[in-house]
Amino acid sequence: MQQVQKGHGDSSHGRRYRSDPWMRQVLTLSLTCCWLAAPAMAAESEACRNLLDQRNALAEQAMKAEIALVRTIRERICPVLSQQADQANANDRNALTIDYQALIDCRYKVEEQLLRSQRVLYVNRQQFRFYTAAGAKLARQADGLAQELREGECPQLR
Description:
Helix content: over 70%
Number of helices: 5
Radius of gyration: 31 Å
Distance between the termini: 66 Å
Number of strands: 2
Strand order of the largest sheet: 1-2
Shape: elongated
Strand content: under 5%
Oligomer: single chain
């Protein structure tokens, strides 16, 4: 019966790794490529984040323009509810009791008024309607940057 020495295993195992210069070159080349590519990948990632930040800022500004328009119409149609809503938003801790159903109904009236009196200037990718020139312009720019993100090298930020 053959005896196997413990701890030594197959003698070709050690030789295979020691004598394979090709594997060592591949490993060295791979590590070098990763080391050289890291700054470029970081810069690309930073550029993607900057593009996303720009898109988000434009979208936020576009929405603010539309919110201001809706608020103006809401103040005209439902002045008391509008004032209560503004006070509640400004001071969450001492929130007033608001008739939310009446506020929702008022919002529907505002939207109906907008649809009758204003032309929709732009509808963004999320199907949100923009009635103000400033909001429409900013939303178009935001959608343009979103398109760049989708088409560009920013898959993690799409």
